[in-house]
Amino acid sequence: MIGVNPATAYLLLTDFVKVPRGGWVIQNGANSATARAVIAIAKSLGLKTVNIVRREDVVDEVKSVGGDIVLLDGPDLAKRVARETGRAPIQLALDMVGGSSALNLMNCLAPKSVLVIYSAMSGQPFSGSALSVIFNEVSVRGFWLGHWGKTATDEALAGMYDHLVPMVASGAISAPVVGTYRLEDFSQAIAQASAFKGKVIFTPS
Questions:
Q1: From CA 177, how far away is CA 110, in angstroms rounded?
Q2: Looking at the predicted structure, is the pLDDT value of residue 135 above 90?
Q3: Number of domains in the chain
Q4: Burial of residue 132 (number of CB atoms within 10 Å: 0-12, 13-18, 19+)
Q5: pLDDT tens per residue across span 5-40
Q6: Which of 87, 153, 199, 202 has the greatest number of C-beta atoms within 10 Å?
Q7: 85 and 78 in contact (C-beta within 8 Å)?
Q8: Which of 107, 125, 146 represents a domain boundary (last residue)?
């Protein structure tokens, strides 16, 4: 799985904004596999993370994997984030949920920052702030690993994997596996995967 979630996380953190060491990144869907990788890779780069979740029962889980700040999503998110970070400027937001959650992230950003959309797990249309785009010059970008891979140089690939492979080997980057299934049990595996509580792995019969 190193070539998907960790690779996506690495590129989200390095390809859009040069966040200085000690700076903050904010993300939603923080209990997902990619978000867990973001937390680990951010730490390796000297960055701090604000992690937004939609359920109270996953707050401690995200804290346990290294999330510096973990908050429940909501319309007052910007006020709570400012309080928790001491009003530190946040230059990069990572959205995998969509809908109003994307708007909540935009409201947390400093002027001339970037919101990167890489998934839409809620299934809701993107909701953003025209005022942030116009007056604060916040940019909205999209990212899909498949597009990046079409033009990535050998040097870029090598640099990414040189960073990621030791982290995966050491266990710094990991993803919860909720079940293993034989190929003939694919229907049960798909049902398990649809719960979005961890990875499902197929094994030889």
A1: 36
A2: yes
A3: 2
A4: buried
A5: 999 999 999 999 999 999 999 999 999 999 999 999
A6: 199
A7: no
A8: 146
Residues 29, 84: Cα–Cα separation, whole Å: 19
∠70-73-76 over CA atoms, to 5°? 110
pLDDT band of 198, cuts 50, 70, 90:
low
| Structural domain range at position 14 | 5-146
Structure tokens at 56: 């109270």
Q: What is the DSSP letter of 177?
A: E
* Token pair listed for 9: 């996380």
Q: Answer whether residue 153 is part of any domain.
A: no
Indicate whether this model's pTM tops 0.70.
yes
**Residue given tokens 């007056």 in the structure block:** 135
Which residue shows structure tokens 């319309």? 75
Task: Show the tokens assigned to 96.
Answer: 């995998």
Residues 125 and 180 in one domain: no
Q: What is the dihedral of CA 144, 150, 152, 154, to 10 degrees?
A: 140
**92-110 pLDDT, tens digit each:** 999 999 999 999 999 999 9
Q: Which amino acid is at 115?
A: L
pLDDT tens across 140-171, in order?
A: 999 999 999 999 999 999 999 999 999 999 99
Structure tokens belonging to residue 51: 């992690």
For residues 141 and 114, the answer to whether their CB atoms sit within 8 Å is yes
